[in-house]
Structure formats: C-alpha cells, structure tokens
Amino acid sequence: QAQLMESGGGVVQPGGSLRLSCAASGFTFSHHAFHWVRRAPGKGLEWVAVISHDGRGDFRAASVRGRFSISRDNSKNELYLQMSSLRTDDSAIYYCARDFSIFYYNIDLWGRGTTVTVSS
Amino acid sequence: DVVMTQSPLSLAVTLGQAASISCTSSRGLVYEDGHTYLHWFQQRPGQSPRRLIYKVSDRDSGVPDRFNGSGSGTDFTLTISRVEAEDVGIYYCMQGSHLPPTFGQGTKVEIK
User: What percent of chain B stands above pLDDT 70?
Assistant: First the structure.
C-alpha cells in the first residue's frame, strides 16, 4: 500500500533551522515528483515546493525562496525540506505529497503531516 | 499567481440533502496538453487531505459516487448529492495548470 510518512517537525526559535523528512513506501519512489504543502493554524493549504522525479528540477513558493530547499534521495526513498531563517508564520503542519510532473500538478497521495512550531 | 475563490466558505447541510461548492479561478485552467488540472480534496478533522476528484470530473478509486465534479474554463463545482455524516470536513479546490499550484480557501461542511 502506497504510503508517505513525514518526520522531523518540532519547536524551533525564530531564525532557527529544521530539516523535515518524508519516507515513501509501497510504490516506485523514483518515478514521481513530490511536493511539500503546509497548513498553518486556522488557515488553508499552501503549496511550498516541488521537486522532479530525478531531483534535477525544483520550484519553490515566493514566501520560502532563499530560505527553504527541497531535495531527495532516491536510493533511500526519502524526500527532504531544509528550512532555515524560520519565522513565526512558518508554523504549520507540513505534508509531503506525491505527483507526476513538476510542470503541471495532480497530487494523488498525501502523508499524515509533521508539525513545525516557530516560537520564542 | 492564479487565485482560486471558493464559495461558500461554510456550509451546514441536513443529512441526505445535497451540497454544492463553487470554485472560480482567476485564469483559465486548460494546460498546453489540453487537460484541465482542477482537483478537489477533502480534509476530515484530524486527517490529511485526500483527493476526491481530479481533472475536473474524474472520481478517485474508492470515492463514493455521490461526489461529482463539473465545470470548465474558470468555473467549477463539487456536488455531494446526499450528504452523510462522514462527509464533515473541509473541501479544497486546487489548480495544477499554472505554477505555482494554488488552493481555494477551503469550504467547511458541517451537519445541521
């Protein structure tokens, strides 16, 4: 059964860093593009970043560009989100999500999410 | 960015009655391959999102046939023909035809 499982969330001070991971199982990881999508408390879903199946291409939302980077390790079936210069408005549940392309988007599978809290 | 506007933002429905959610995009959503990447997701309380409908009207496997998607151009609708208790949650439309992908604000569905 296809599954995504995020980890690495926690409480961090403003200006700090955190790396999220997403472990995939039950399907061929290297065939898919992946996104990070977040949901802040009391708000809706916000797209964060996408990476191609081979890791050679990625796009990031303007709100995180220059602070967050997305990467993957196809040998480990893992997706990552490196977050730095964190701000209080980055507090959210972060979901990894599966797709097929980085040029048009059709998410078909979501993880359970990991919570990031940025607070002093 | 393409702005996705949902209405209503909140909906209280009697069990067994129909419910409709509208989603309007600020730009047309036909991609260069001819497909329209407009999808609907359900997020039940405490759960992660789940795709219900993709490319306007294709229902995902395991999704009850009371969920239907329709629309074209910039106007799209999700209809639940007979609301059941398990349908409580927040529903989002999402466009995937333009970068960045964007979501509607979400519509909260409750039972009266």
Answer: 100
